[in-house]
Design a protein that fits this description.
The structure holds 2 protein chains of 2 kinds. By secondary structure, chain A is an all-beta fold. Chain A has strands spanning about 5, 10-15, 20-25, 30-40, 40-50, 55, 65-70, 75-80, 90-95, 105, 110. In chain A, strand 5 (about 40-50) and strand 6 form a beta hairpin. The model of chain A has no long low-confidence stretch (mean pLDDT about 95). The radius of gyration of chain B is 14 Å and the shape is globular. The chains are: A mainly beta, B mainly beta.
Chain lengths: ~110, ~110
Amino acid sequence: DAGVIQSPRHEVTEMGQEVTLRCKPISGHNSLFWYRQTMMRGLELLIYFNNNVPIDDSGMPEDRFSAKMPNASFSTLKIQPSEPRDSAVYFCASSLRPGNEQFFGPGTRLTVL
Amino acid sequence: SQQGEEDPQALSIQEGENATMNCSYKTSINNLQWYRQNSGRGLVHLILIRSNEREKHSGRLRVTLDTSKKSSSLLITASRAADTASYFCATDAPDQTGANNLFFGTGTRLTVIP
């Protein structure tokens, strides 16, 4: 298995633009997690899905952020409109189920100018 | 919050020395896991210790768990420059929905000087 796949690896955009981050979890994993990591705030859980259903989105900063998981092999995290303070590394991770070992993707480094 | 806290926040040692990192948490757990993150990369799972275990070994890693003190430690013996990374503990505990989830700590930045 190729592991968790994220795209793009780097994204530079201007304030106000829409940003879409993509994730393909490991096949057979039922849980998918989106994290954001910055120097100031560390690693933050934004939202997680179990069997494609969002379970806890309390970490989503505000309505500008949305996440979907239309099927077991694909998820998106969308920011619209983006702001400079959204600049961070966004990680997707998957596991067999919540609480199990998580496998992280390489991350998407987002820079909003 | 269930989030664990690592101590120290940063640690710098000479190659060959042992490195010890500590993690404290707040509520009952099912298991505790340690992860490593190299700069610019995703986290990688190192070791898992269950709540009914007190000590576990994996290569140069030794993890202890004291559930009465709600704390764990990660010992890396005979450190190498390649061990330079950030280390995170993560606790498996119920989240606000009642489902079990993994809560990551704030991390310890380890620097091993050649």
